[in-house]
Amino acid sequence: MRKGPNTLFEKVRGVSDVGIEVECAHLVVDLPPDQRTPARHLRIYKEFGAAAIPLQMIKMHPGGISFAVERERLADVREILTRMGYRYQYTDEMVIISVISVNMREMYGVMAKIAETLLEADTEIAQLGDSHDSVLCIVPKRNAQEAIKRLRKTFNLRGASHGKEARP
Amino acid sequence: MKILVQKFGGTSVATPENRDLCAAKVVQAKEDGYSPVVVVSAIGRKGAPYATDTLIDELRSVDPATKPDLHEYDMIVTVGEVISTAIMAQLLRSKGYPAKSMTGYQAGIITDDRHGDARIQRIDPRYVMKALEQGIIPVVAGFQGVSEPDSPDHHPEITTLGRGGSDTTAAALGAALGASAVEIYTDVNGVMTADPKIVKDAVTLDTVTYLEIAETAHLGAKVLHPRAAEIAMDYNIPLWVKDTFTNERGTLVTHVETPPKWPRVTGVTSSGKVVYFDFIVGEPRDKARIELELFRLFAASKVSIYMISASPTSVGFAVERSLLPRIQEMLQGLIIPTELPDGSLRWYILSLGDSAGLQGQRALMDRFADRIDLRVVEATMTENCSVVSMISGQILKTPAVLAEVAETLDAAGVEIYQIADTEYSLSLLVLESEAERAVQALHAHFVGQRPESI
Prior knowledge:
The complex is a heterodimer.
Chain A: E1 14-30, H1 38-50, E2 56-61, E3 64-70, H2 74-84, E4 87-102, H3 110-120, E5 127-131, E6 134-140, H4 141-154
Antiparallel strand pairs in A: 1-3, 1-4, 2-3, 4-6, 5-6
Helix pairs in contact in A: 3-4
Chain B: E1 3-8, H1 16-31, E2 35-40, H2 52-60, H3 70-94, E3 99-102, E4 109-111, E5 120-123, H4 126-133, E6 137-141, E7 144-147, E8 158-160, H5 165-177, E9 181-186, E10 207-209, H6 210-218, H7 226-235, E11 239-243, E12 251-254, E13 267-280, H8 284-300, E14 306-311, E15 314-320, H9 324-331, E16 335-339, E17 345-351, H10 356-366, E18 373-391, H11 401-411, E19 418-421, E20 425-431, H12 432-448
Parallel strand pairs in B: 1-2, 1-9, 2-6, 3-6, 4-7, 9-11, 10-12, 17-18
Antiparallel strand pairs in B: 4-5, 7-8, 11-12, 13-15, 13-18, 14-15, 16-17, 18-20, 19-20
Helix pairs in contact in B: 2-3, 5-7, 6-7
């Protein structure tokens, strides 16, 4: 609903929502030292592209790459990586939690609060991602509801979260 | 009454000739049956007598060793816009169109009390509306407002809206007045698919969505401030980006009911001079604690980190390169204790490459090596990086896009050091020396070969 002329408010800084984005599996692929250049990564990306498997939260690490995929595609991903001869670890039953905030990069301390809250909740963060308006955390599904509850408390949020409920 | 908000930036009002062009746009709007509300920035860029940067330099020159107080900062910089309003109003009057200059206060722009970077709390547009009803063109000072007094004993304080403040003023006034549209006049012909200085065949987009322009602005394009796009989106006000110096159509920023078919690439940007750090912790159990302490330290020091990546044994992030000396000073040799399950302590010392200070610190600690558990967190530092981004709705829902990006950059001889994806963009950390080549290659592949209008 449109606000009247005298009730105009610009969005305030701060975290406005916390919720589950998607259920996923998280994979870490080891790349030997001589295979860490983009041309080597390309082999993996091409295989997944050909199999129509979208990757999320792709990160490059000193020892390889990691990414998330929809849980339904985990078997396909594993089959491809095995066929290509890569060593990898995977964790099924994960979720991506998003912490939404306007102008994240003009604020300080959001990441520290998230890390502190999840550490206190004994929730391991498998991966972090950030953009100008959100922080994404891959965490175990079993910890997700408690993590969201605590994050919402940390950021003084009330009401329902935007995200999907994790499926039982 | 059809209200049209027209905002003119510093370059647009820099010279009498330019201001004549601005006035012509206002007059045309009036002749077309609109009631224009004009928002202006300070006149000219750095070096011009009343430009914002010139006024800041004047304040700093009082004592270069003393950081200017933000209250005084707001007091001096707002003068630039006020001068601009009077000159523009006088120019419109000289052409036979009644006009009246207004400060942010007179235009009813009420902000929070954060000097230098205030947010608009509310707008009371009665004074602007009264002028419009009398057939007068209000010429409002952009970038400024006043804070709400805490009590009747207090007076409002003059505040400024931070970077892109005049765009924000225009969008907010447009929303408050229920304007038909907001026009942002600048020195480029709308929103382009890339910086034309880097990509010669960059094209101007006819239409972009609010989300696309906000993402583009956040990722380095300077054509419109994201706050303005976000306000326009919140209040569903059509926003145009137009060229002061031509009569071309420009770009319409609006809400689009039907998303583009293929995840079209709205643009390719490059931004920032950054350094990427990767801290190797080694012990997964302690990594979360070290990560947290790093985040806390950056928060306390007001240092923004981004493109964050974590693995079980490492944490990486980018920071602005200008902050590198400060980061090195903060982190080199920093000792972080972690508590083990049995209550004993393990000490981690951060190492950003070898230095005399670090060697000395380690030598001191090594003397107690038999009594304390001391480990080293080595950091790798990739200097001279830039962030190249492709903006596109649903970009990563197209499975092959990452392979296409990697293949395109590989062919162009560009190495990717890190990746960050959002719902609307894919950002790549590359060497600064390869950033232009990366923009050109991605633009040629994703924009040049797939023209897709909304």
